[in-house]
Amino acid sequence: MEDGRLLQWGVFRSLLAILQWWGFNVTVIIINKWIFQKLDFKFPLSVSCVHFICSSIGAYLVIKVLKLKPLIVVDPEDIWKRIFPMSFVFCINIVLGNVSLRYIPVSFMQTIKSFTPATTVVLQWLVWRKYFDWRIWASLIPIVGGILLTSITELSFNMLGFCAALFGCLATSTKTILAESLLHGYKFDSINTVYYMAPFATMILGVPAMLLEGNGVMDWFHTHPSPWAALIIIFSSGVLAFCLNFSIFYVIHSTTAVTFNVAGNLKVAVAVLISWQIFRNPISGLNAVGCGITLVGCTFYGYVRHMLSQQPPGTPRTPRTPRNKMELLPLVNNDKLDDKV
To answer: For the chain, how far is it from start to end, CA to CA, in angstroms?
Structure first.
């Protein structure tokens, strides 16, 4: 009886974690798109800066004031040698995501983001000469095919937004790969990651944002009919962006890898559906099919990676057996930390 109650509580806890993660993630995406499209605040660097500032303050409060999470102590020398380079890539990743959201619909942007597993595998193969099982390569075929179909049939295609989203995938992959080497020895969770990287990201992006968008922001403030109400929405998006990081920490510790993989792909479908209901961007039948193929491919990729990770070392897989499990599997962990802001 007691075991049954514990099982029910575990299922309820996992479901609650997934729902709150979906809620924060979809809300942040929709509000950011609303800021760019409805509030006419077309300044992605400034929006990213607001997110970094709110996340820096939020992480400080959670770790230092409320003490809800223990601080992972980093050697002062490692802060500049390891954390700063990671913060630079982290900053580029978030900025490119907001730039893409500025120019292309949520549905298209979210579909392109699903390309991240492919870019991670290819980068590790080309640059680091890492070997992957043939089933990993085969699982990438529907992802690539679905994104090609989606891109060709996208009715609101914008080259700048498309390139920003694509390079955002490369930045995400680079961040994931570098984390394995630069952060080796440190077990960062999403909150500690933001605590260390968000202040650096604010420093890196602050000056370019002021130089490139400062005059435009001032003009917008003076011409917008309700600038203070709009600013409340903009800063609210920053607060929600930090809450999203906390929700990621919660969902990672409340679900299995397989559940997280499936929930992550369903989350993309939910974001696409809700954004279409709000913004009514045109979506053709083939475009929807391409998006669906991509999501199925991502789910299949996660399943293949999980299946291979469960095989004991030395199990025959191909004519050339990898020397160890790390040689077999890509470093990307199904975008578990991709939603960090």
So the answer is: 42
